[in-house]
Design goal:
Number of domains: 1
CATH class: Alpha Beta
CATH superfamily: Vaccinia Virus protein VP39
Helix content: 25-40%
Strand content: 15-25%
Mean pLDDT: 92
Bound molecules: S-adenosylmethionine
Distance between the termini: 59 Å
Number of helices: 8
Strand order of the largest sheet: 3-2-1-4-5-7-6
CATH topology: Rossmann fold
Structural class: alpha/beta
Shape: globular
Order of helices and strands: HEHEHEHHEHEHEEH
Radius of gyration: 17 Å
Oligomer: single chain
């Protein structure tokens, strides 16, 4: 086999697929012409961790976007804030707000935003479940709180927006959490949503190496429907 340079372990193949789907949503927003939307969008990283996904979101965010990030661990919030510091210099037009709170509190977090920010459309959301790499493995996401956050974001997601959930079956409760996310995603009406599911095919659940990705894209609607929903200007 010819020798090749080693690839870094992160982003993984599934991380890259998630990023491609999120970038697609950002690019659709840009192509529609930001000026046709009433307000710049919100992007959410519901599991900040070390901030890789948040930094990616910020790099492809439409102009003047608002990036919201949540994590329950101060250590993660610190790491993500550091990683985002450089990314923020590249995107001074965007605003970043980080919360050391569980993503199940997103409804309250949203309600506490200034009125104009609350009106912004939600364009993208990312979950990378499980524990903080290199951190406390007992502090990990749980199906119940993940679903609470996911439901809130699903309800708010704008047409052509995308939610991505990277699941791990190796964690305690991981298989159940993956199944819960998948059930929710699979129940989305196909007339309004495109849902894709991609899973390791050569790794076992037991022993816990299998990972999967659930991508939920809200399908486009007509300009008239967009106006009625208050998403674009008359
Ligand atoms: C796999 S890591 C995320 C990796 C991260 N997206 C990155 O790019 O580095 C999962 C994170 O979820 C966080 N977490 C666990 N339960 C949470 C909750 N209820 N709300 C928000 N974050 C949570 C953990 O603290 C951990 O940092």
């Amino acid at each position: 086999m010819p020798s090749s340079p080693l690839l870094p372990s992160r982003p993984s193949l599934l991380d890259d697929l998630a990023h491609a789907a999120l970038a697609r949503a950002c690019s659709a927003f840009r192509q529609s012409g930001s000026e046709s939307f009433a307000l710049p969008p919100v992007l959410v990283d519901a599991t900040l961790g070390n901030g890789h996904d948040a930094a990616f979101l910020l790099s492809c965010a439409p102009p003047e976007a608002l990036l919201l990030g949540t994590d329950i661990q101060p250590r993660a919030v610190h790491a993500a804030t550091e990683r985002l510091a450089a990314a923020r210099q590249e995107r001074p037009d965007c605003r970043v707000q980080i919360f050391c709170r569980g993503h199940q509190e997103l409804p309250q977090i949203w309600a506490e935003l200034p009125p104009e920010e609350r009106q912004r459309p939600l364009l993208a959301g990312v979950f990378n479940l499980g524990w903080l790499p290199g951190g406390d493995k007992s502090c990990l996401t749980r199906a119940e709180s993940t679903l609470a956050a996911l439901d809130f974001l699903l309800e708010r997601l704008m047409p052509q927006g995308c939610l991505s959930v990277h699941c791990y079956t190796g964690n305690a409760g991981g298989p159940e959490e993956e199944q819960a996310v998948l059930r929710r995603a699979a129940a989305l009406p196909p007339r309004r949503w495109r849902v894709a599911y991609c899973r390791d095919a050569n790794r076992e659940d037991s022993g816990g190496r299998a990972e999967s990705l659930v991508l939920m894209e809200r399908l486009p609607i007509s300009r008239r429907e967009m106006r009625v929903a208050g998403l674009c200007q008359a």
